[in-house]
Design a protein that fits this description.
Layout: E1 6-12, E2 17-22, E3 40-42, E4 47-50, E5 62-69, E6 79-85, E7 89-93, E8 98-102, E9 106-114, E10 122-129
Parallel strand pairs: 5-10
Antiparallel strand pairs: 1-5, 2-4, 2-7, 3-4, 6-9, 7-8, 9-10
Length: 130
Amino acid sequence: MAEDQHVLRVRPYYWGAIYISDADCEADVDIDFHNSEGPVLSTASHVAVLVVHAGTVDEGGDVTLDVRVTSGRVDGLPYEVAFEVPSGRLYIGDADESDEVALQPGRWLLQFNVDKAAEAQHVEMVVSPL
């Protein structure tokens, strides 16, 4: 994905989280949701953003995910994670569906903003090189 382009997805997340990892990551998701506070959780191999669990709401379970790749840090986003992407392909999604964002292999800054810390329905994610 070239800088200043974006992916916009609107869909339900039946797992209650958006998972982010290197596309070649073979490890299972290693985030302990029970002993962590959200909305953004991370380990060396995974990042998760807690979102509304579509299976627990009668209607309105769609989540808007807006991903942008930029040339540098963006001010005003309250959550961030430095993340290694050795393959140059960033996996963003869940067990049901995913997108891959093409980057240069290396270390990237993932910045986030969510509308609700506990059960987000709008997630903004900005990806920039470190």
